[in-house]
Each structure stands twice: as C-alpha cells, then as structure tokens.
Design brief:
The structure holds two protein chains of two kinds. Chain A is mainly alpha-helical. Helix content of chain A is 74%, strand content 0%. Chain A contains three helices and no strands. By secondary structure, chain B is α+β, with helices and mostly antiparallel strands. Classes of the chains: A mainly alpha, B alpha+beta. Chains A and B meet through helix 1 of A and helix 10 of B.
Chain lengths: 62, 539
C-alpha cells in the first residue's frame, strides 16, 4: 500500500507548504501531531515503531 | 556608436573575432529582407539554419564580435541532437562532444540515486551530449557561413518599429546607425533582450531565491562522463555540488550558495579555488587543475505573455528564462527555433497563411510551462526556498539512504521533449493506438534493418509514414498543398513500435512532430490533417 510517484510528489509540496504555514515555533508540534494521526490510521504499533527507528537513521550534524 | 571589445582569455578556447562589414543599407541601398534574426546565440543561429533548409535567406545581427563566453549551456539533449542532425551540424558536434547516459547523486557519503536516462540501440543519439556553449556556437557560426547566411557582427538593435506589415530595426554599428527592414523579425537576443526592452514587454512568472556559482576548470581527469551531484558533502557542508565533464579536459563545477552568502566574497578566485579544491580532495580526484571561468547564476521561471508581437517573434531566453536544473534552457530554445523555422518558411514560400505563425506562441508557451513545472521542482530541491522545503529536502535525502520510495525525490528530472497534444495544428486520435508517438509528440526512433533510423525520415516537407501495405498513391500526396512525401516503412520492429498494421500511417511535420495518425489512412484524411497542421482549417 505504498503511494504512487505522483502522490508522493504532491505530498512533498503540500507538507513543505504546511510546515511554512504553521511557522518555526509550532513546526515540531505540528509534525508530532501529524505522526500520531497517521499512526492511529495505520493501526499497527510495530510498524510505527519500526518507522520511528528508520526516521532516526542519518540524523544529526555530520 | 556601438563598438564591443572582447576581453576573453580561455585555457581551452580561442575566441574568434569577427569583423564589422559595411552592409548594403549603409551604401544607400533599400533592401526588404524576408527574415532578420536579432541575436546570434544557439537559438538565433539554429533558426537561421532552419530557414536555410527551406531556401529562406535571413540576416543575423549580433551585437557582440564573438561567441558567448564560457561553458554556459553545456548539455545538449537527444531531441536537440535530432535538430542539429536536420541542420547538418551533428557530425562536427559529436566529434568533440561527450555523450552520456548516467548520473549519481550522493547524500553525505551515501549514494542515494542512480540516474539512468532512457537509451537503447534504437536511438541514433545518446540522451545527453556535453559541449561548451562557446565551442557549439562557433560550430553553428561556421555552418551558417558555409551556407552563405549573412551574420552582421558588432551590430546592435537600438530601435524597432512595425508598420504596413514590415518591421524596421535601427542598427548601431562601429561606423554609424542604419535601418534594417524585414517582413519578419526573430528576437533571439537572450536573457537581457534589447528588443524585449525596446518593445516595452515584461517577463512574468517567479524568480527563485537560489543562487549557484558555476566554475569551469581545466583538469585532465579520465573519470567517465556522467552527472554527479553531492548533497551536504564534507567538503562543503550544507551545500549541493554538481560536476560535469566537458570537452577539451574542461570540467564544470556548480555549487549552490546559501542565502546568507555574499556574492562578491563568494566570487573571489581564492574562495572559489578553495571550495573546488576541497571538493576534489573529498572525491579523491588527484589530477592537477586550473580555474578557467566563473559565473553566478540565479534561477528564474519567467516568460512573455505572447511570443508573437505583430511580425516580431521571441525565441530562446528572449522569450523565457528557465532554471538550469535538468538542462532545459538551451534545449528548449533550440526547440523554439525548430518550431518557428518551418512555419516562417511555409508562410514565406506561400504554403500556408500567416495564421500558421499564430500557433508558434501557444505551442512553445505550453512547452515553457511544462519546463517551469519540472524545473521549479528541481530548483526547490537543489536550493530549497523556505524552511518547509529545506526540511522536506533533508528528510528525503536521509530517507533515500535506506528507502527506495524516497529516491524518486532525488531524481534530477532531466529534460524531455514536449508533445504538442493540445495544439490547434494537431489532429487528435480517432483510431485506437497502443504504441507509437501520439499526435503532437516527436517521432520515436527505431533502428531499421538497413542501419538507418526512423527519425532520419523527417524532412523539409511533411512526410506520411505508411506502414506495410497502403492504398495511398505517392502521386496523390505530391499534389497536396503543401506537397507531402510518402515514405513506406516495412521494418517489422518499426511496425510493432508504432502499433501500425497494414494501411496505418503517421503524418509528420517538418519539425519531426506527429500531427495526425490513422489505423487506416486515406488521401482525404491526410488532406484534412494537413490543412489543420498548416492553419488552413480548424476541424
């Protein structure tokens, strides 16, 4: 159930615009709320935890 | 008095200096030219060559006394190669150019995207070929000279008037100002078009904030020709760096400047050398090198509202400014020339009404907007304009290290030809086709059994490609206005690639774009599509 290339393209722009709209002060809170909403829709705790681990990879200053 | 002086030194290219020659107009002769091309860059010279194919003489006026400086637009697409082939320049071009198909994008130390552009033995040309613009322009100039096309160097347009269906240009020269009169004028005078300014025309659209520094270096490295891009490399943390190999041991290094970077500081030679040196060390390049040329570049998505203004037509950068990412600048400019050339010739040769020229702007503006859509995405990735786009870009790059789905965002989206599907000249399909170029698209190449390519069949005339058996007689097509050449294709692979059973046919414009196709063609259908493709009817 992955997204099409076109969907991914549109979501990229939509998410960038949303981050700019909420502003830097609220950006983290917005992204965490978004994650919890998507996790709830996914309904798969191990999958969400695996995604959290994957999102931690490559983080941090070089 | 206009008297340019060239100042250029180059490590690999000797700039030819062209003299000013007194034109007949300055000796008191009154001449009305068919076409005057204002601007002798790639788009203007390609247009002059296109016109010559159809027997139309033009005069090119160029403000400078030599070709343009530096590598500039150095990447020529397959579609542009086909245009060069039609104009007899592909051989000298390919003798020097470096052809390529692949690219690699890196994020920090990881390879995150492998670019493989579509290529197959059916293609005559590689997807891309690199040659510096100065070398390329000189090839076009030499070809134009060989064909007897008059290029008036050191001749700058300083005035323009339109009356009674003619255009008058005031031309400033090292000696005096004179007036040049023509039925049509093509403005190909570049990003800072003087004709655009004189006619009070404005470019509309958006300018992007991202700035790039472009540097040519001379380095005899044997690394193969491909596109390499680094995001956040240890050599220049936070920056993105592009490296392309070009002819004569010249390498092109492009890197993004940050919004807070000062242009003057960044343009200092020592600074540029330090950045490039660190990057070459980082990628393990040990070949000695020297800096040749530096330039600052800013991305724009701007165009005129109408590329036709009376009898003046705008092509290339004079009509539109597009971001460099995906190499769409000069390639779309050459497509402009290819589109306008046959139309001007058809009208001047009395094969079509002036209304055919009205189709130039909508066809090429549609192509420009397609370029904007793709190039703007590339630009937002290479130089993210906002906090939101910066986060998305960095997230996409980090995810691309370990996740296939994220790699699509790293794709540099290289230039692709535009299909004139919605054009008033294009007859939409009435028969179902499951393969082959759709109406509006350029011909798809197929290597034929005799070693030639299907795209070689494009000619100065409209061509009807007939597959297998047909009831249409060549004599019936020869009496059409304009006459159509019949080409029969019997190659089994071509028939399959074009989904063309016996009796199927594709009608092809002189610029190589399909304007109609049928499963079962008749002379009447061909006549109707031809009338439509030459603006003599709309149905």
């Amino acid at each position: 159930m992955s997204l099409s290339i076109d969907s991914n393209e549109r979501l990229y722009d939509a998410l960038a615009a949303a981050v700019d709209r909420v502003g830097p002060a609220q950006e983290s809170l917005f992204l965490v709320k978004l994650t919890l909403l998507l996790a709830n829709q996914l309904g798969d705790e191990p999958a969400v935890k695996a995604a959290m681990d994957a999102a931690c990879e490559e983080l941090g200053p070089r | 008095m206009h008297d340019p002086h060239t100042r250029t030194d180059s490590l690999y290219f000797e700039y030819p200096i062209f003299p000013f020659v007194k034109p007949p107009e300055m000796a008191g002769q009154t001449v009305t030219h068919q076409v005057v091309v204002a601007g002798g860059g790639p788009s203007g010279l390609t247009l002059a060559l296109e016109l010559a194919r159809f027997g139309i003489k033009c005069v090119v006026v160029e403000a400078d006394e030599t070709v343009s400086e530096g590598s500039r637009a150095a990447c020529v697409s397959r579609r542009s190669m086909e245009i060069l082939q039609a104009n007899g320049v592909e051989r000298p071009f390919l003798e020097q150019a470096l052809e390529w198909t692949h690219g690699t994008s890196y994020y920090r130390e990881h390879e995150v995207f492998r670019l493989a552009m579509p290529h197959s033995p059916d293609e005559r040309f590689y997807p891309m070929a690199n040659l510096q613009q100065n070398i390329f322009e000189e090839l076009l100039v030499r070809r134009a000279e060989a064909l007897g096309i008059e290029i008036r160097w050191r001749s700058k347009v300083v005035g323009v008037r339109q009356k009674d269906g003619l255009v008058e240009l005031d031309i400033d020269t090292p000696e005096d100002v004179y007036t040049l009169r023509s039925r049509y004028v093509v403005a190909s005078d570049g990003a800072r078009s003087e004709l655009r300014r004189l006619m009070g025309l404005k470019l509309n659209g958006e300018s992007h904030e991202g700035r790039y520094l472009i540097a040519d270096i001379k380095m005899a490295s044997t690394y193969p020709t491909e596109r390499r891009a680094w995001f956040d490399p240890a050599s220049n943390p936070g920056k993105s760096v592009l490296v392309h190999k070009m002819a004569r041991d010249i390498w092109r290094v492009d890197y993004a400047l940050d919004p807070e970077d000062d242009e003057e500081t960044e343009m200092q030679e020592d600074r540029v050398k330090a950045r490039i040196g660190r990057h070459l060390d980082y990628i393990g390049e040990k070949t000695p090198w020297t800096l040749d040329w530096i330039r600052l570049y800013k991305a724009h998505c701007l165009c005129l509202d109408d590329y036709r203004q009376g009898n003046v037509f705008f092509i290339g950068d004079a009509a539109h400014l597009v971001p460099i990412f995906g190499v769409r600048g000069m390639n779309s400019s050459m497509a402009d020339a290819n589109n306008l050339g046959w139309k001007l010739a058809a009208v001047l040769n009395d094969n079509a009404p002036d209304a055919l020229l009205d189709s130039y702007s909508p066809e090429r503006r549609a192509a420009t907007f397609d370029v904007f859509a793709n190039a703007a995405k590339s630009t937002r990735f290479m130089t993210p304009p906002t906090r939101g786009y910066t986060l998305l870009r960095d997230a996409a790059l980090q995810l691309a290290v370990g996740h296939d789905f994220a790699r699509q965002w790293v794709n540099p989206r290289q230039s692709a030809p535009y299909d004139y599907v919605a054009s008033s000249l294009t007859t939409p399909d009435s028969d179902p086709f499951f393969a082959g170029p759709r109406p509006g698209a350029p011909l798809a190449s197929v290597k034929l059994a005799d070693g030639s390519y299907l795209t070689d069949l494009v000619s100065e005339r409209f061509v009807l490609l007939v597959f297998g058996k047909t009831s249409i007689a060549a004599s019936a097509l020869a009496t059409l206005q304009p006459p159509v050449t019949l080409q029969t294709v019997t190659d089994a692979r071509a028939i399959a690639a074009y989904d063309a059973i016996d009796g199927a046919a594709y009608l092809v414009r002189p610029d190589g774009h399909v304007c109609a196709r049928w499963k079962s063609a008749t002379a009447d259908k061909v006549r109707a599509a031809l009338e439509r493709a030459t603006a003599r009817s709309n149905s």
